[in-house]
Amino acid sequence: MADQQPGDAVPAAQRSSWSSFLKSIASMPRLSSFRLPPLTEYPAYWCERPELFAAIADAKTPEQRALAVLQWFISTLKGQYTTRNESAGSEKKPLNPALGELFYGYWPDKNGRGKTTLLTEQVSHHPPITAYVIENESKGLKLVGHNAQKTSFSTPSIIVKQIGHAVLTVKLPSGGEEKYLLTLPRLRIDGLWYGAPYIELSENSYIIGGGFVGVVEYKGKGYFSGKSHSFKATLTPQPGHGGSATKEIVVEGTWHQNSKFTAGGHGPFHDVSAPKEEVTAMGGEASGEMGPMETRKLWELVAKGIREGDFELASKEKSRIENEMRQRRKDEAASGVPWALKHFTPLASDPVYEELGKHAKITPATEDTYVFQENWPETLQAKKK
User: Which domain of life does the UniProt lineage start with (predicted)?
Assistant: First the structure.
């Protein structure tokens, strides 16, 4: 890093404006700095390897299920946190979603893994909060969660605290079920000084359930040492749980490439070198068409302008949508009738989070949640069967 100079990755003609970009990245970057998909499509990254999601249900013992959940979780991180960097050369900001924005999609059944469906809704605009549900009904798997971000500066990085969590429910052959609490890592956007922003994960994620406590420690690359995207995951059975498991299991590697067992097991653990599987978007209207608040319909012309470099079109359409949303908020304030969510109901505290979180003494001790109302659109309901 010693021979790298500030702004090296920025084209020479643009270096004079780089400092202005650094100031704007935390608020509203230029349209050329946006990257699709919008935030409402981000939950699809949870299931871009649907065979690993389905494999959780095929595990026979509590320890095998806990390992399957950990393997699936680690395998989602590449899609969630490096996709924009890999495809665009540096980190890009997604389009800001509109309150009530919707996205529906699915992954088809292949090799007996079952069909998996996705529903997301933008449940808050300030702050932006996205709630989602991913379900493989034939396998008895359902993931429900929400996500928001709080950004701050810490020279020379941007720190993004992820707010929210997810709960995975696994129906067991016995008729019972297991629930797993999954918390989100903190993000650090580095490379700003050199004009090539990229995401590094930091601190810990927790995966708690099925009689096990999993801690994923993100090591990453520091300013002077370390390897990018490194992690160490420790899976520990709770006393009286986990069947015959008595010792902790440790996995180490890089979450965007591969990892292996370093204690409690042998051989490779995860590998994400194979291509991911994109979600198939669907319309939520009874006709199968996309409604006006569905992401790809709402942002259709903005996306077209960004893809084709027609920033006049993109800017015009983006301003139109934002002005309509502002007016809608004003009308709601004047009438005293707030926007009604379509698929989720907010809940001030999540009892599953509180019950499972205490096993790792995670903070905060309680957190709000969004309860899915089980009202899948007819088009997705058909895809689930």
Answer: Eukaryota
Cβ within 8 Å of residue 156, ≥6 positions away:
190, 192, 193
Q: How far apart are CA 69 and CA 179, in angstroms?
A: 11
How large is the greatest C-alpha to C-alpha distance in the chain, in angstroms? Answer: 65
Helix (H, G, I), strand (E, B) or coil at 262: strand
Contact between residue 33 and residue 84 where contact means Cβ atoms under 8 Å apart = no
Please check the confidence at residue 320 and state whether its pLDDT lies above 60: yes
The number of residues making up the chain comes to 385
Answer yes or no: are the C-beta atoms of 214 and 206 closer than 8 Å: yes
CATH classification code of 12-282: 2.40.160.120
User: Domain ranges in the chain?
Assistant: 12-282
Q: What percent of the chain clears pLDDT 70, i.e. is strictly above it? A: 82
Rounded to whole angstroms, the Cα distance separating 221 from 101 reads 36
Q: C-alpha angle 79/109/342, rounded to 5°? A: 70
Tokens linked to 338: 């707030």
Closest CA to 66 of 220, 229, 244: 244
Element (H, E) at 150: strand 141-154
Query: What is the rounded end-to-end Cα distance, in angstroms, of the chain?
Result: 54
Q: What pTM value is reported for the model?
A: 0.87
pLDDT at 370: 98
> Using the 8-state DSSP alphabet, how is residue 248 labeled?
-
> Residue 117: CA atoms inside 13 Å, Cβ hemisphere, count?
21
What 3-state class would DSSP assign to 16?
Answer: helix
What is d(CA 313, CA 228) in angstroms, rounded to the nearest whole number?
A: 38
SS3 103: strand
DSSP β-bridge partners for residue 165? 183
Question: Is residue 322 within 8 Å of residue 95, measured between CB atoms?
Answer: no
From 80, 145, 81, 149, select the one nearest 119 (Cα to Cα): 145
213 membership: H or E segment, kind and range: strand 212-218
Sign of the C-alpha dihedral, residues 225, 231, 232, 236?
positive
